[in-house]
Amino acid sequence: MNSGEGTMERHTVNIAGTTFVLAQGTNIDTTKNAVVQAVRAGGDLVDLVVFGNEKVSALVSPGVAVLFRSLTVDTDNRDTGDTDFPFAHFDSYDSLENL
Predict the structure, then answer these.
(1) Using one digit for the tens of pLDDT, what is the confidence trace for 6-51?
(2) Spatial distance between the Cα atoms of 28 and 20, rounded to a whole number of angstroms
(3) Which of 7, 46, 61, 74 could be bridged to 2 by S-S, CB 3.0 to 4.6 A?
(4) Alpha helices, DSSP H only, in 2-92?
(5) What single DSSP character describes residue 23?
(6) Alpha-carbon gap, residue 3 to 12, rounded angstroms
(7) Beta bridge partners of 12
(8) CA-CA distance, 78 to 44, in Å (whole number)?
């Protein structure tokens, strides 16, 4: 969906084979630091707000594969990161494997 407001960086994080599309405006460095801290602590929950304004918590521990990706996409004005206002999103995160 193009809101006519330009483009943005869409960040994804793949944790143990599951891809999560992060809400626009997510600070990717903060997310990366949370993942690293969880691994250094021997494992912990990392809280994410994903596309659709939904909350997700993922258990990250040593040995869990984590991959970050970024792609330039059209801005989507529905994707505010406000979890009080979720919206319908992708049919499946599996369709995003090629991002």
Answers:
(1) 888 889 999 999 999 999 889 999 999 999 999 999 999 999 999 8
(2) 13
(3) 74
(4) 28-40
(5) P
(6) 20
(7) 21, 69
(8) 30
Q: What CA–CA distance (Å, rounded) separates 66 from 39? A: 10
- According to DSSP, residue 90 is labeled -
Ordered alpha helix ranges (H), 1-99: 28-40
What is the Cα–Cα distance from 69 to 38, expressed in whole angstroms?
19
The per-residue pLDDT for 38 is 98
Tokens 């943005």, residue located:
8
Structure tokens at 18: 């599951």
Both tokens of 16, joined, read 């143990």
What residue has token string 């494992």? 43
**Contact assessment for residue 88 and residue 76, using Cβ atoms and an 8 Å cutoff:** no
Residue 77 DSSP class: T
